[in-house]
């Protein structure tokens, strides 16, 4: 059973189906703004505002308002041709996650030691909701150079 414990709401466990009870105009706006970030994928890293509006079914003024907020926060950047891609804030947050995530803090030294002992390449995966994400990659002894790239699998 998936549940969330929210001390802000008296410590009540809310399952996913009950999140709609908490929906307010502000939460709805935030969800719609964050949906723009969900458009970005390895297959498509550059979008115009018009493409975003069409894909998400938003009006152009609404899309531009959400884009303005995401640009101001550094989550997306605007290129000279008017297209947008992910911005530096996501990299900053990734860095912070890597410093504080207990799974990474505990797991990376273990993966590093195993890789040194066996000479094998090792990957560390983490489950985030319905996504499996490669969060660390360790090259083995004498291994071919590998480049780290997140793999993302939707369950």
Plain-language structure description:
The chain is an alpha+beta fold. It contains 5 helices and 8 strands; from the N terminus they run ββαβααββααβββ. The protein has helices at residues 25-38, 49-56, 60-72, 88-100, 102-118, and strands spanning 3-6, 12-15, 47-48, 76-78, 83-86, 122-128, 131-138, 152-154. A 3-stranded antiparallel sheet has the order 3-5-4. It has a 3-stranded antiparallel sheet with strand order 6-7-8, covered by helices on one side. The protein has a two-stranded antiparallel ribbon with strand order 1-2. The two termini are 16 Å apart.
End-to-end span in angstroms?
A: 16 Å
Based on secondary structure, the structural category is alpha+beta
Strand content: 15-25%
Q: State the helical fraction.
A: 40-55%
Fold blueprint:
Elements: E1 3-6, E2 12-15, H1 25-38, E3 47-48, H2 49-56, H3 60-72, E4 76-78, E5 83-86, H4 88-100, H5 102-118, E6 122-128, E7 131-138, E8 152-154
Antiparallel strand pairs: 1-2, 3-5, 4-5, 6-7, 7-8
Helix pairs in contact: 2-3
Task: Name its key features.
8 strands; 3-stranded antiparallel beta sheet; 5 helices; alpha+beta; 155 residues; disordered N terminus
């Amino acid at each position: 059973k998936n549940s969330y414990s929210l001390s802000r709401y008296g410590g009540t466990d809310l399952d996913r189906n009950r999140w709609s009870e908490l929906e307010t105009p502000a939460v709805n706006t935030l969800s719609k703004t964050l949906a723009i970030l969900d458009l970005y994928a390895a297959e498509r890293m550059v979008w115009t505002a018009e493409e975003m509006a069409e894909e998400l079914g938003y009006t152009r003024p609404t899309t531009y308002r959400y884009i303005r907020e995401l640009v101001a926060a550094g989550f997306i950047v605007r290129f000279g041709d008017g297209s947008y891609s992910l911005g530096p804030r996501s990299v900053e947050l990734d860095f912070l996650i890597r410093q504080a995530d207990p799974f990474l803090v505990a797991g990376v030294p273990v993966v590093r030691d195993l890789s040194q002992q066996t000479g094998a390449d090792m990957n560390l995966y983490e489950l985030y909701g319905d996504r499996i994400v490669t969060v660390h990659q360790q090259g083995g002894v004498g291994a071919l150079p590998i480049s780290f790239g997140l793999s993302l699998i939707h369950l």
